[in-house]
Amino acid sequence: MRSKLSNELDTLIKEGVISSQTATDIRQYYAAKNENSPNLLYTIFGIFGAILIGAGIILMIAHNWDAFSKVTKIIWALSPLVLAQLLVGYTILKEKSMAWKESASVLLFFAVGTAISLISQIYHLPEQLDSYLLTWGLLCLPLVYLTKSRAVALLTLLTGTYYTIVIGWKLGESKTPWMYLIFIGAILPYYINLVRTYIASNTTTIFNWAIPISCIIGLSCFIKKADELGFLMYITLFAVFYGIGRLQIFAQSNTLRNGFLLLGSFGTIVVLLILTFWEVWKDIGNGHQLGSQEFFIALFLVIIALILSVQRLANSKLKLNATTLIQYSFLLIWMVFFIPLGYIFATVIINLLLLAIGITIIKSGIAKMHFRILNYGLLITSVLIISRFFDTTMSFELRGAVFVVIGLSFFVSNYLMYKRQLKISKK
Amino acid sequence: MKTIHILIIFIILALVQLYVPYRMIKDHEDILKYGTLYQFKTKPIDPNDPFRGKYITLSYEMDSFNSNDTTYYNNNKVYIHLTKDDAGFAQIKGVSHQEPTEPIDYVEAFIDYNDNGYIRFELPFNRYYMEETKALAAEQLYQQVNRQDSIEKVYAMVYVKEGKAVLSDVIIAGESIKDYVTK
């Protein structure tokens, strides 16, 4: 890459496009940039090497050689841990490169897991996956700040999420995985720092997706007895995501890199779509359990969602567009949930809201000449119309006709916008 | 933060990371050293239960009790008070919701189900880890021996101390399953 740039610069000087001084400035700029950024390739190979070595050690030792005495087995279980600790200590002391720190930290992460699991095996302990994952994750969490390892941050987030699933998705389990909050709470300051420092990096993008996905999975594990409040919790969580995704710091990022925004938008639409069915509102009923943990979690989320909404209002004027409707739809859901106006009213109002979101997204897609936005709006509107088939007893002919009309509307609207785009580009 | 500070915090973390396995080893060694040895008669396990890889799954004859108490719910923890029969095998002396305060031997167990007073529980020491290459043969052997009319010959040796238990060996015809399987 570097030599290609150098060759290009030489050609540009020869052709008289740039001066030799400009070429020197460009070279110096890239040299300085290269010095500040860690060598990505070394880091990636280092991490993968450490993961493979770590996994290899686990497999080899898990083989469980009966020929070894208990003491030998214990030494085998603990030696990778001590070696990895010495390696991490060395990288900190000698202030080694990020590639070194990442690799050593990943190795230590696996060594901790290996040590605990092997000691459990030596003493024939029963499977207690939740406490195993919790201990493993908590013992490695401080590494995220000590070595600033991004791979360990991601691995501990995965461990924490897995722990939550083990407890939360177990049939007949009444426990709530509260310790998940420690994982997410500890990773968040690290993530905020990452966003502030390296907003455009690929690692930040991975976290932009990993954190909201982990929260979506995690939240399901906190819904126990008051499950009717689940919709309220999720719509508010998605409003928080959308609000974060709309923060000024993400304004320059590519939309696909903004997991919070996309998951917030898509999640809101999905929850609203479910709430357009009257049977769902009938099930939800009116007697909400206000003293439940579900209610307090929803309350905590709504405070964050409101702060983000107020912040947005302070920065820009409120316009009636798709963004506003998606970000503030949680307010309407909260009102419908707690004002007893009957499930028919709730159903009608959510249908109207989703229709309005669909239409405003289509409008925005046309105005921006953006195919992806246009089709997203068309998709929402179409799914909403198709969903209403389940509520009515329409004849097959009529249903077929509506499908054809929806299909045609996709073609026609895309074609019309394509033509308009051509016309503008010719001008 | 200065490098030396980071290093000091890391050393503390490293010590905590080492303390956790140390504590596990110490607690279990204490049970093996100071606990009381009980022999738990095993019984055949569900043959449809898939082979688990590097351990065999054990099932015990002592797995239920009768009670009129309706507050024994599924997944609840119970304390099984232990005694020994004439041959030295573990027997149920009593059951309680709370941890016994008197100096008796007991183990923690979890209730599987409560069927109108017939309460089935699961003892936690139901895994015996073995060398990968021996585990399948050991599991097959375990089932075969248990199916024959020789139940007395198969038992687990479990050390018990203050509600905690450590499975130390599985004995078939007076021999450790690890040695028996190689015959």
UniProtKB/TrEMBL annotation, chain A:
The chain crosses the membrane at residues 40-62, 74-93, 105-123, 153-172, 178-199, 206-223, 229-247, 259-278, 290-308, 373-390, 396-418. Residues 11-152 form the DUF2157 domain. Pfam families: DUF2157. Keywords: Membrane, Transmembrane, Transmembrane helix. The keyword RNA-binding does not apply. This is Putative membrane protein. It comes from Aquimarina brevivitae. The lineage of its organism: Bacteria, Pseudomonadati, Bacteroidota, Flavobacteriia, Flavobacteriales.
From TrEMBL, chain B:
It comes from the Bacteria. The chain crosses the membrane at residues 6-25. Keywords: Membrane, Transmembrane, Transmembrane helix. InterPro entries: GDYXXLXY (IPR025833). This is Putative membrane-anchored protein.
